[in-house]
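Much of our argument rests on the idea that a fold can be written as discrete symbols. The amino acid sequence and the backbone structure tokens for this protein are reproduced below:

___
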Amino acid sequence: MAVDAPTQAPSFWARTGHYVKAWYWASRPFSLTTAVVPVLAASALAFQERRASLPLFFLVLLGSLLVLVGTNLADEYADHDRPEGRQKLMAPYKVIALGLLSSRAVRSGTLVSFSLATLIGIYLVVITGWPLLALCLASVAVAYGYAARPRPVAKLVLGQPLVFLFMGPVMVVGTYYVYTREVTLAALWLSLPVACLVTAILVANDLRDLEEDRAAGKVTLMTLLGHPFGRWTWTALVAAAFASVSLQAAVGSQGLMLLLPWLALPRAIRALRCVWLAQDRPAMSLAMRQSAGLHWWFGLLLAAGVGLGRMVSA
């Protein structure tokens, strides 16, 4: 009579690897570039003005990433806790539903992320001045409220305006203020294309989830106004981003190097085709990923253009 061999328990390293992988997915790594681009753009402007600081850059970047990770974890925790959230498509980042992490662990991760971001914010306020405090408090409050119960603003018509404001002007101008203790029109103008393209990612996300959100009774601009409105909104936002850098290059002080983001135009065209031709969720998911890629490459080229403007003008 054959006897089955005893099943070996996973090794320490295997368990650690699974745990790290679970937290990696819980952080939603595909979204983290949206926290990097505003910091890069503002830092490039400060660098152009010879006012940048590498230690401050790393602190602001870490704080920005922690706020976004905390937002993603809060969304995962709250979404799983809502009855309609359990009916959603089982994406890799649904770590609670997949049994990779417990609700308690994700909630603890949310608190740790926001707590560490708050500590960085407090330090930056101490060394730069109290005006930064209002931006830090508002950013953490909106980040938590974006996903948390009982009525997350991500599921209200406020979602897109708040993303535009806080992932664009607030982050860019706030980062620039850390370096310079000033708020300037140059920083505000620089934030506009960043804001347009990060909002375009959210529009693509809401288009992908439109039917799902309608079935769950969620109120977003997409569920209210439908696919045509979302597609035209996406197109207008992307067009505004390219028009903004063109206008700044023509009449601003940044110079023609600010036209570098136009090198991302082929990505914009591919994303545009996908947004307008997508008919199902997988195709719309591709449109969202392409929108995120456009934001990332446009942002890198924007920061490079601003930074290189210093060398050209020197």
Notes: The two ends are 85 Å apart (CA to CA). The CA atoms of residues 142 and 162 lie 8 Å apart. Residues 22-313 form a domain with the Farnesyl Diphosphate Synthase fold (CATH 1.10.600). The mean pLDDT is 84.
